[in-house]
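step: validate -> pass
step: tokenize input -> pass
step: predict -> running
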Amino acid sequence: MIDQAKSGVDVLIHEMVVPADVWVKKLGLPDTQAAIDGAQAVQDSSHTPQKAFGYILDQIDQQGTAPRLAVGTHFQATDDTIKAALRDIRTWYPRGDVAVASDFVVVNVSKKKGPKVRRAVVSEYAWPQAPVPASEDCATPKYWKYSDDTKTTKVQAPEAQLDPNALVIDPDLYNAR
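step: predict -> pass
step: emit ->
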């Protein structure tokens, strides 16, 4: 993330997560060390703690390319978690605009006015979504095929979605290596 922001960005959007013990509490799991350790293992393998997001922003700021707006997303946003997250971010990144994304957040970016965060206006009286048809009414997805033995049993076949005649672009053409 730090390398990607070297040239400077208007809006930097990055995921972050609450501390493991808070995650366990918010999920309603038993407040045991085993539950906290499990949540911590998930976080260590695939998430950015909120304080680490502040550290990342600090590192970007130190290279002189702080974003005009930093947005933490994919976050368990509630009144208490947002306040705590902003405190943790500010331990490393005391200045600069920071927002935490939640449902219906919209970011408008303008050269003159800069990034602005607002809430989307959504009708409370919108038409309901159409119900999902029963699976027997749907066509068989491309990633299934019939087994060779009975021709009636569906089996998984992810490769069935691939077109064997499709053009494959040489990775050397776009510097993939």
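step: describe -> The chain has two domains: 11-119, 139-174.
step: cleanup -> pass
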